[in-house]
Design brief:
Elements lengths: L2 H20 L11 H15 L6 E2 L2 E2 L6 H13 L3 H26 L2 H13 L1 H6 L6 H20 L5 H22 L6 H11 L8 H15 L1 H9 L3 H16 L10 H13 L4 H10 L1 H4 L2 H7 L3 H19 L12 H15 L1 H8 L3 H20 L9 H16 L4 E6 L5 H6 L4 E3 L15 H9 L4 E7 L3 H11 L4 E4 L4 E6 L20
Parallel strand pairs: 3-4, 3-5
Antiparallel strand pairs: 1-2, 5-7, 6-7
């Protein structure tokens, strides 16, 4: 292929990636709990005009820094308060990550590997799905990828090109700062990779002390101002950040996200191996054919002298080790690791399947047909998702429960509360402020305090609106037992999926103490 052909192929890659990223972005509703929470916070930020303090149903919500909320809110301001607007910038960051993956591969090897890397990353099962999920993870993946690209470029510069080395190092620190403003400590994942690479590499150009100091200053200027402002204006927030968002997530596992020794093994292996399909098949075949070589100690000793292999290996293994040690684990946490995975697979394809790659670039034969078919499957599966209404789809949930509420109370005003679960997307679709309560006793830090529903019902019943509680069927016995102990009258209505609605009529203050415990005949 000549230079002109490369330009043509890059245009094709950009077009295909854009199709994968943008097609059917608004076809399905918001998934709970994460999409519903992020989009609701961003929507309240957009409506209130307060872009400093994230709020969830009117209450300050500092579980994550604001950059993701800013992007979601910006998307909704451009395209409207809908799923398209909420996910727009996630699609853009997916495209940017794909191009950054191809760019670093082209600089490490050649344009062929660069094109393959972009193609592999954009059509992996997991990455294409993640492009359609409005959380922090795709945004963080781009910033981590950007930081790693800059690290490679800065360490591969010669000593004679000092300004260029300084520029790449500064950009790396900028990306790390933006990552920290996206998700907090996980945004720092490029730092241990950087340290390990500079220590182990025999060829990498080390930055000078002046370059490091300047980069650290740029990081602080980007990452810390928001934290300083909100900590200054919210008493106890620093304690919350340390106890809940750092210690609670990394060490204690109090957020119950696959904590414990085996938690990582339940989440990460199959996410990485199945999520990288169909391309990971080529990696497994290569590993099987070269098993004697890669398991030999000599192969690993030579890695230090081969910067590109060492770089990719550290890019993948160091963050994976840190994520494994952490006591908070979810599948999307390893999304940034699919970039080095794609680089390794693309290099294997270019070296060991060169004839098939040439056929692919000629846009003919089985390889080209299979790639087109793969893209069709990726895009088509997203379109089909609109016709499925899983119990985590808040749009589908609201569509069904709104009909039930209308049938039960007509046009009477009501307050909607969610008990024992997180369904913040319902607030987005209903336009209502949704109260969230727990079944157990009130507990937690003041910025993440969980209020018991029974403790709050006395106040709710004094309001003129009907109180509608949405909960899971399995929680009903516990809730009504507490209601009976307090003499709270209620009516039960089966809802969609495994949800149940509880209706409580308002009472006058003078009659509040006269409520009787309902009999079984009261339940509808």
């Amino acid at each position: 292929m000549n230079t002109i052909n490369y330009r043509k192929y890059w245009c094709i890659i950009i077009a295909l990636t854009s199709i994968v990223a943008l097609a059917f972005q608004g076809s399905r509703g918001l998934w709970e709990p994460d999409e519903g929470r992020y989009v609701r916070c961003a929507y309240e930020m957009l409506k209130s005009g307060d872009w400093i303090t994230p709020r969830l149903n009117g209450s300050p919500h500092f579980a994550k820094p604001p950059l993701t909320y800013w992007l979601i809110a910006s998307g909704m301001s451009l395209l409207g308060a809908n799923e398209w607007g909420a996910r727009f910038f996630h699609a853009i960051f997916f495209i940017l990550t794909t191009l950054a993956t191809g760019y670093v591969a082209a600089r490490m090897w050649n344009q062929t590997v660069g094109l393959l890397s972009s193609l592999v990353f954009s059509t992996m099962a997991f990455t294409s799905v993640a492009a359609n999920i409005a959380t922090t993870d795709m945004i963080l993946t781009f910033f981590i990828t950007g930081a790693m690209v800059c690290l490679w470029m800065s360490t591969s510069c010669s000593d004679r090109i000092y300004p260029r080395n300084f520029l790449w190092w500064s950009l790396m620190c900028l990306f790390i700062g933006l990552g920290f403003l996206t998700k907090g400590p996980p945004g720092l994942l490029p730092l241990p990779v950087t340290i390990a690479y500079l220590v182990l590499s025999e060829k990498a150009q080390k930055p000078s002390a002046a370059v490091i100091v300047a980069g650290c200053g740029l990081f602080c200027a980007v990452a810390f101002p928001w934290y300083l402002v909100v900590i200054q204006h919210n008493d106890g927030l620093l304690s919350y950040f340390i106890s809940e968002e750092i210690v609670g997530r990394i060490i204690t596992g109090q957020h119950t996200r696959n904590a414990g020794f085996w938690g990582a093994f339940k989440i990460y292996p199959h996410t990485l191996l199945l999520g990288s399909l169909p391309w990971s098949c080529f990696l497994f075949i290569w590993m099987w054919k070269t098993k004697q070589c890669i398991w030999a100690m000599q192969w690993w000793k030579r890695v230090r002298s081969r910067d590109n292999k060492l770089f990719i290996l550290l890019w993948f293994m160091v963050p994976l080790l840190i994520l494994t040690i952490s006591n908070s684990r979810l599948p999307l946490y390893v999304l940034p690791l699919f970039v080095p995975f794609a680089l390794a697979i693309a290099r294997i394809l270019a070296v060991h399947y060169s004839e098939k790659v040439s056929t692919l670039f000629a846009l003919r034969g089985k390889p080209a047909v299979l790639v087109v078919l793969l893209i069709g499957i990726v895009v088509g599966s997203r379109g089909l998702s609109a016709y499925f209404e899983p119990k985590m789809d808040s749009r589908a949930i609201w569509k069904k429960i709104s009909v039930i509420i209308k049938e039960r109370i007509g046009d009477s005003p009501y307050n909607l509360s969610v008990v024992g679960l997180q369904l913040h997307g319902i607030a987005f679709y209903s336009g209502k402020m949704i109260n969230t309560f727990e079944i157990k006793k009130s507990q937690g830090h003041s910025f993440s305090r969980k209020i018991n529903i029974v403790q709050e019902m006395d106040n709710l019943l004094l309001q003129p609106e009907v109180q509608v509680l949405l909960t899971r069927r399995k929680f009903i016995t516990s809730i009504i037992t507490q209601f009976r102990e307090k003499g709270i009258r209620y009516e039960i209505q089966e809802g969609p999926y495994d949800y149940t609605l509880i209706f409580c009529r308002p009472v006058l203050p003078e009659n509040a103490v006269k409520l009787r415990a309902p009999s079984n005949n009261d339940n509808l």
